[in-house]
Design a protein that fits this description.
By secondary structure, this protein is mostly helical. It is built from 15 helices and no strands. One of its GO terms (molecular function) is symporter activity.
Length: 393
């Protein structure tokens, strides 16, 4: 756990980037382009969920000195069976989600980089496995810090260059086109029906549960909290990430509106230039940034950084869960600390190779945002059960 004495700023940046994957960087602008601003409300709700995490969940986990999420079930129910059941579900869902995180950006980047998607899958999967195995949580946290800077740099560059482009015409025209096309009209649509694609209440309810599950009862987040020496430091990093989190999510989403202005009256989906909405973001970035040497490469590194940060966090968390929940009790006192470290490295390699292999079977899944959201919905049952157990007697 980084010696339980990691610096606050790198941990805060790592927490910020862990849940903002390449899927989000590509699919959220496409969603704004295609359907409008409602998806942005989901991220606003995320800031509220972060505050709830600080006030409700962190004190509980800190008091129990949990370094692995599923230790909670030993303290709460005194049942190793329940602990291992939830740990198994976490491992199953996470390893499948990691394969989606590897595959989705590879598909989007493949046409513009002119590298076959399966080579990109191997590059993403094996590179992340290598540095996560060598450096452990410290390498993950410090690399996430660098990747956060690349993410901000890439998105801000795209927005700055996009607004300057003659076909876009500045921020006022971008907003006017978004309003005229109806992309801003349904932000506060209060229709309570659940049999619809999106609404205010769907975003509030799903956003609250999703982000509570992500920040409050997720092994990826718990590891970062446990790497800090005190409860106050852990709470402070969450408060410190609120503004950067909503800024990054907002500017990523706003890219979709700039793309809408750029492709106004010439939708590349309708002209057949692209086959899926998921490709709109990278197509727009290529058109805007490629004329200036180096800028498109910066944006590609932004997407790759978002992908690698999520992958490294997932691999490290899976290794911690396997060791803490299944192996530590049996091996405690039988192996040295160095042997335990080597075993954890081997587990990281296994998880990384398995996720990479599974990515080769992700092709039939469809649109990346829809798949990602559907998969997160399937995780909610497990995570929300943990949420409810905090309040139960």
């Amino acid at each position: 756990m980084g010696g339980h004495n990691m610096p606050s700023i790198p941990v805060a940046l790592s927490l910020l980037t862990t849940f903002l994957s390449g899927i989000l960087m590509l699919a959220v602008p496409a969603e704004m382009f295609q359907r409008g601003i409602q998806i942005w409300l989901n991220f606003v709700i995320g800031t509220v969920s972060s505050v709830i995490t600080c006030l409700v969940f962190l004190p509980v986990f800190h008091k129990m000195k949990c370094t692995c999420l599923h230790e909670y079930f030993i303290h709460r129910y005194n049942s190793i069976l329940i602990r291992r059941l939830f740990s198994t579900l976490f491992l199953l869902f996470t390893i499948i989600y990691m394969s989606i995180v590897i595959y989705a950006p590879a598909v989007a980047l493949s046409p513009v980089l002119r590298i076959h998607k399966w080579w990109l899958v191997l590059i993403f999967g094996l590179t992340t496995t290598l540095y996560t195995c060598i450096g452990g949580l410290k390498a993950v946290v410090w690399s996430d810090s660098l990747q956060a800077m690349l993410m901000y740099g890439g998105v801000f560059t795209l927005i700055f260059q996009g607004l300057r482009h003659p076909k876009v015409g500045g921020i006022e025209r971008v907003w006017n086109i978004a309003v005229e096309s109806g992309r801003t009209a349904e932000l506060f649509r209060m229709d309570p029906r659940i049999d619809q694609y999106n609404s205010f209440w769907i975003n509030v309810i799903s956003g609250t549960i999703t982000w509570l599950a992500s920040f409050g009862v997720n092994q990826l987040a718990i590891q970062r909290y446990a790497s800090l020496p005190s409860l106050a430091r852990a709470q402070n990093i969450i408060y410190c990430t609120l503004v950067p989190f909503i800024i990054l999510c907002s500017i990523v989403a706003f890219v979709g509106f700039i793309a809408l202005a750029y492709f106004h009256n010439c939708n590349p989906l309708e002209t057949g230039q692209i086959g899926e909405t998921d490709h709109i973001t990278i197509l727009f970035a290529r058109d805007i940034l490629q004329p200036t040497p180096g800028l498109f490469g910066l944006y590609v590194s932004c997407i790759m950084s978002a992908t690698l940060s999520t992958l490294s966090s997932g691999m490290n968390s899976m290794a911690a869960a396997i060791y803490e929940d299944f192996l530590k009790v049996k091996l405690d006192g039988k192996i040295t600390d160095n042997q335990a470290t080597l075993l954890n490295k081997a587990i990281v390699v296994f998880c990384g190779l398995t996720s990479t292999a599974l990515a080769f079977s992700a092709e039939p899944l469809g649109g990346i945002l829809r798949v990602s959201c559907a998969f997160h919905s399937s995780q909610m049952t497990r995570n929300f059960t943990t949420v409810l157990s905090v309040f139960s007697r």
